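Lay summary. Proteins are chains of building blocks that fold into shapes, and those shapes determine what they do. In this project we predict the shape from the chain. Here is one chain we studied, written as its sequence of building blocks.
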Amino acid sequence: MQPHDLSVGGDVLERVTRCAQQALGAYGCHPATTVRLLNVSENATYLVEDPGAGPSVLRVHRLGYHTEAEIASELVWMDALRAEAGVRTPRVLAAADGRRIVTAIDDASGEQRSCVRFEFLPGTEPVGDSVGHFAELGEITARMHRHARQWPRPSWFTRFHWDYDAAFGAQARWGRWQDGMGVGPAEREVLGRLDATLRTRLAAFGTGPDRYGLVHADTRLANLLVDDGTVSVIDFDDSGFSWYLYDVGTSVSFFEHEPQVPALVDGWLSGYRRVLDLPAQDEAEIWTFILYRRLLLVAWIGSHSAVDIAAELGAGYTRDSCDLAEKYLSQAS
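And here is the predicted shape, written in a compact code that computers can read:
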């Protein structure tokens, strides 16, 4: 796994911020333009406030997570969803020379990072976890899935996979769940049984084109913006190839153990079925994908310990994961 350079301390963030400031020149921004950090997760995201052009959003990529071709592929799918699927996504704002991906260099360290500038979309994250919000999320997800199944991707299109090997194999993308916070011998035993069961069930489920394809891979309410009834989808950075049902697993990320989740999943399904049918055999594996995502997040928290939400959840998330795993395993056997 490539070390997550953005989660190791303020000195790194200072270098990233200098890259963000350096990138402004490529966009022809006003000399008084400022950048303000909004979020750090896989990447660092900044609000750009340009007196001459208004606000926009600049994403500065972490090192080693995506190639330039992979970033370009993400952007072209966002374009296609907006143009062809009725899914509102932020437009990419090109540099003065037409580039959609700018390489910024921190003069102090010589570090180079890829940057993408997006239009600023008005709106806020839906407040509260409600069945209505999840129905809307399910409907939007189904529109993305329908588009992905039909879309003739460019020949150069390339994105990574979220299959079992990428999640839990020798080169696990987010690190090993065994290195998660609070994973001791007892937790390792429970989660090891979960890992083995997931591997078996996913192999049986298969990767046929009706079940596996291009997905957003982080369809949470946090990645929706609602403005006067208009809903936008943001943060396609993890988009790639996986099971379509992985998206329902991501919809309840970080609170999979909460008692309201079954009702929220039912809401998600009701919205999804407005657009696409879901066979009973697929629906029967929904909790497989919720637990798959959950185990992935145990690994993510362990490898992103300096990210706010990871530090907040910590070992408690692992303990709740074990309880959820036992419940799932008792029903899956």
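What the prediction tells us: DSSP finds ten helices and nine strands in the chain.
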